[in-house]
Amino acid sequence: MKSSLLILLLLLSHLTPITRADPLYQICQNLGNYTTNSTYQSNLNLLLHTLSSNGPITGFLTDTEGSSPNQVFGRALCRGDTIQSNCASCLSNAVQDVVQLCPHQMSAIIWYDDCQLRYSNATFFSKWEGDL
Ligand SMILES: *[C@@H]1O[C@H](CO)[C@@H](O)[C@H](O)[C@H]1NC(C)=O
Ligand SMILES: *[C@@H]1O[C@H](CO)[C@@H](O)[C@H](O)[C@H]1NC(C)=O
Ligand SMILES: *[C@@H]1O[C@H](CO)[C@@H](O)[C@H](O)[C@H]1NC(C)=O
């Protein structure tokens, strides 16, 4: 009896991970596709790693990797009232999710309750947030 309850709890905990927030939505901008093992992909991986491991310290963090035509621009944002540890875990989910939800996309944006992640081969840093 006890062990079947334990199994049930284990099953439930696998079905409903508590700490893993799902994206609210994402935009795969469909500007173009990069190929597997391309320079663009390795620059993107570097960028996503930087954005998720350094985290925004003051609201947002931008990073640029590589040089034209394989240059990648990226920005990580956390909501103002998000505590640092939630910001970090949100961004760590974001970098994993974005490459699965927008596979091979040159440019994409993903939103969560706590954070937003965007990357592109074209700079967008000076543009207003709503201007995609
Ligand atoms: C990128 O690849 C996806 C999936 O194969 C395809 O649907 C899309 O049209 C491609 N986009 C461009 C701009 O070529
Ligand atoms: C990408 O690189 C890896 C490691 O070098 C290799 O195993 C894989 O076959 C490559 N894939 C493509 C599609 O070139
Ligand atoms: C971004 O990539 C797309 C698709 O390859 C290309 O049409 C566009 O010119 C690139 N933009 C920049 C700024 O390199």
Question: Which features would summarize this protein structure in a list?
Answer:
single chain, about 130 residues, alpha+beta, Killer Toxin P4, Chain A, about 35% helix, binds 2-acetamido-2-deoxy-beta-D-glucopyranose
User: Rg to the nearest angstrom?
Assistant: 17 Å
The run of helices and strands is HEHEEHEE
Distance between the termini: 56 Å
**SS content category:** alpha+beta
Number of domains: 1
The total of beta strands comes to 5
How would you describe the shape? Answer: globular
CATH architecture: 2-Layer Sandwich
Strand content: 15-25%
User: Any idea of the CATH topology?
Assistant: Killer Toxin P4, Chain A
In the CATH hierarchy, what is the class? Alpha Beta
Biggest beta sheet summary: 5 strands, antiparallel
Domain Gnk2-homologous: 22-124
Protein name: Cysteine-rich repeat secretory protein 1
InterPro entries: GNK2 (IPR002902), GNK2_sf (IPR038408)
Signal peptide: 1-21
Explain how this protein is built.
- With 132 residues, the chain is of the alpha+beta class.
- The protein has one domain: Killer Toxin P4, Chain A (2-Layer Sandwich).
- The protein is 36% helix and 20% strand.
- The protein is built from 3 helices and 5 strands.
- It has a 5-stranded antiparallel beta sheet, with helices on one face.
- α2 runs antiparallel to α3.
- It is globular, with a radius of gyration of 17 Å.
- The termini are far apart.
- The chain binds 2-acetamido-2-deoxy-beta-D-glucopyranose (3 copies).
- One 2-acetamido-2-deoxy-beta-D-glucopyranose binds next to loops.
